[in-house]
Structure formats: structure tokens, C-alpha cells
Amino acid sequence: MRLKINLALIFIILFGVIVFTGTIILLDRISVSQRKPGFFVQNRTVLTSSDIFYDYKIIKYPSKVEIIDLKPGELVDMIGISTESWIFNFGIIPVGNNYVKKTMVLNGTPDQEVMVNLITFGNISDMISFSKNNFQLEEDETVFVFLNVTEDTKVGNYTGEIDVILKKEK
Predict the structure, then answer these.
(1) What is the largest CA-CA distance in the chain?
(2) Alpha-carbon distance 113 to 104, whole Å?
(3) pLDDT at 108
(4) What is the pLDDT of residues 50-100, one digit of tens each?
(5) Residues above pLDDT 70, as percent of the chain
(6) Predicted local confidence at residue 134, as pLDDT
(7) Whole-angstrom Cα distance, residue 118 to residue 130?
(8) Which of 14, 15, 38, 53 suits 120 as a labelling partner, its CA being 20 to 30 A distant?
(9) 160 in Cβ contact with 120 (< 8 Å)
(10) Between β-strands 114-122 and 156-169, what pairing exists: parallel, antiparallel or unpaired?
């Protein structure tokens, strides 16, 4: 009788350890793509990973903007926006209620269910917003990336990273 109780207790403890370990591993895999990077990418970078349930593709874009204090009557030819596709360079923007809109086109296929999550990092993060986030990717999905500069924005250079996380069930 005592042996049966000991075996049952050992089984329960072993089962608990396996469930706990599996939960920790799963939570780690889910959050791996959402951790703050130790450094920001300098070029468009694509990473892939996988766990027992999902395949992940993470596309990392550097992002930057220079905020200037433009006084009335000053030269405005220094304001500019970059059109490069490998970086979200919002250019030189004056302080004030201004915004810049850039377009990101994500290509999907109708036969695959892919979830999209967009995350920003760095001191530029508070200025960036998206037209949509946390959505299922359809064929040729367009997302607008906005950089909003308010009266309270301090003059200076802002940098960071925009991560596009694509999650597909296996």
C-alpha cells in the first residue's frame, strides 16, 4: 500500500515538473520575439525560428528621425523624407503637430493563416503608430506606419527598430 502511494506521489511530482517545464519553454518561445533587443539592427534583417506549434519569421527594420526646431522664415529645404525600403528613415521633421506616413506592404497567401504583430523599440517608439496591428495576414496587406511629432517632442535624433513578427501554425 505504501509503495503505491509513493509511486503515485512520484508520478504526480514528475508530471508537475514536465508540465511546468513545458509551460516555461512555451512562454519563452512566445515572448522571444518581443524582447527588447540589446542593439538595433543597421539594415533590414530577417530571422526565423520555430517551436512545436508555430513557425516565426521576424523582419527587423532600423528606424530613425531627426527632429529640428524650425523658426518661421528659416530655410525649409532641409526637411526631407527617405524613400529607402530597407529602413524606416522618417527624415528631418520640424517640431509641431506634424506626422509622416510610410507604407509597408506585407505579402501573404490565401491558403496560409499568418498572424502579424508589429512592435517598436528605442526612443523613437512613442512617436510611431500603425494603421493596424495584431491581425491575420491576407493577400498583399498594406499597413501604414505613422510618425507623429507633437509640440512636446524634444529636438534631437531618435532611433530604434520596427519588428514585423509573422506567426504561422505548423
Answers:
(1) 93
(2) 19
(3) 80
(4) 989 999 999 999 999 999 887 766 665 555 666 677 789 998 888 888 888
(5) 72
(6) 95
(7) 8
(8) 53
(9) yes
(10) antiparallel
CA-to-CA distance for 58 and 23, rounded, in angstroms? 22
Secondary structure in 3-state letters for the chain:
CHHHHHHHHHHHHHHHHHHHHHHHHHHHHHHHHHCCCCCCCCCCEEEEEECCCEEEEEEEEEEEEEEECCCCCCCCCCCECCCCCCCEEEEEEECCCEEEEEEEEECCCCCCCEEEEEEEEECCHHHEEECCCCEECCCCEEEEEEEEECCCCCCEEEEEEEEEEEEEEC
Among 33, 28, 53, residue whose Cα is nearest residue 45 = 33
- Domains of the chain (ranges; CATH) run 36-169 (2.60.40)
For residue 135 the three cell numbers come to 491581425
Please answer whether residues 124 and 63 qualify as being in contact, where contact means their C-beta atoms are separated by less than 8 angstroms.
yes
Check pLDDT > 90 for residue 10.
no
pLDDT score of 33: 47
Cα 5 from chain centroid (whole Å): 50
CA-CA distance, 165 to 57, in Å (whole number)? 6
Cell of 139: 493577400
Residue 81: all three cell numbers together: 523624407
